[in-house]
Structure formats: structure tokens, C-alpha cells
Amino acid sequence: KFGEGIRSRTFIGDTVKVKSGAIFFTPNEETAMFFAKNRAEWFADIGKTARPTTYERYLNIKNPADFTTIESAQKVFDKAKIDLPKTFNLSVFDEEISLETYIKELGQLDLDGIWKAFDKPEFVSSLKKAGFDGAIIKETGERGISYAIFNPEQAFTKSQLTDFYNQAVGGIKS
């Protein structure tokens, strides 16, 4: 089912089932394989066999929520009316404190960990209501950028795109 999966909690030593409202993609092959291996290891932990596999997909995201900088994330949170304390379990919260202060000075929030919020249905629902159809996310460390879609019909194989093109060109020739 869309968005169902597991989340490894390496430091705790277990995994939990999650129902995310998003599917994540990355153009970085090393990052994709890192996550694929992580999932295969989880299957081994529960006594099943899995082979780390990645798939090439082309995404159709027209209005992504941009979480790559503090400034762009603040605009998304404001537009989507995201409840920061509830969504991110902030212990200290003041409406007058900027997102930048939470991240840089209070150390309570980290853009590298924004992906965790996608496990909360109300977070994705708020983004959708604000008109976002996906997200751009800064990955931890040197992993670069990842993309999230909120509908599985936003991801296409090369074969599907070729079919769309041939149908369009065929329609023009007729």
C-alpha cells in the first residue's frame, strides 16, 4: 500500500512500521542503495530474505514544498499552517521565535531530519491542503537532495514516458 513501510531506529536497535503519506526518491545512486540495503537488512532481522534493489523513476512534481533551506522551510510551514511544537515535539516554543532560532540556537529542529514529519498523516495533509504535491528535502550529511511525492501516480518509468510521447506524437500525425 502507498506509503507503508518500515523505519529503522538504528540507535535503539529496532524497527517500527510506519504509514507515511509520501514516497521518497533521490537522484543519488549511492543514497538510494544505502536505503535499499537498510530495508534488506530489516527483512533479514525478521528472518526473511530481500535483495537491495533500486528503480529508476521520473517524477511529476509541480508544486513542491521546499525544505532545503531555513528560509524556504519557514515559508512552507507558514503557508501550510504547520503546528511546529506538535509536529516536531518541541519542548520550548514561542510564536515569536523563528525557525532559524529553533535550528541554529536552540538545537531543537534540524532540516536534515525533516523527513520524520512525513510519518505523521496530519503533516502531509497540511502540505496537500496548502497546494503542495510533493517535497524537496535536504538529506543528512553528504547524501544531497531527495524528493517526496504524495501520490504514487506522480512516478513514471521510462517505458511509460515513452508511451506518453508516442501517443502524443501519433495524435499529432493523425
Can you characterise this structure?
The N and C termini lie far apart (39 Å). The protein is globular, with a radius of gyration of 18 Å. 37% of the residues lie in helices and 19% in strands. The protein is an alpha+beta fold and 174 residues long.
Number of strands: 8
Return Rg in Å: 18 Å
Helix percent band: 25-40%
Average the pLDDT over all residues and give the rounded result. 75
Structural class: alpha+beta
- Uncertain segments: 1-12
Q: How far is it from the N-terminal to the C-terminal residue, by CA?
A: 39 Å
**Looking across the biggest beta sheet, what order are the strands in?**
3-7-6-5
Oligomer: single chain
How many strands, which pairing sense, and closed or not: the largest β-sheet? Answer: 4 strands, mixed
Order of helices and strands: EEEHEEHHHHEEEH
As a percent range, the share of strand residues is 15-25%
Tally of alpha and pi helices:
6
Shape: globular
Output the keywords.
6 helices; globular; 174 residues; alpha+beta; four-stranded mixed beta sheet; two-stranded antiparallel ribbon; disordered N terminus
SSE layout:
Blueprint: E1 4-9, E2 14-19, E3 23-25, H1 29-45, E4 58-59, E5 64-67, H2 70-80, H3 84-88, H4 99-105, H5 121-129, E6 134-138, E7 145-149, E8 155-156, H6 158-173
Quick summary:
With 174 residues, this protein is an alpha+beta fold. Helix content is 37%, strand content 19%.
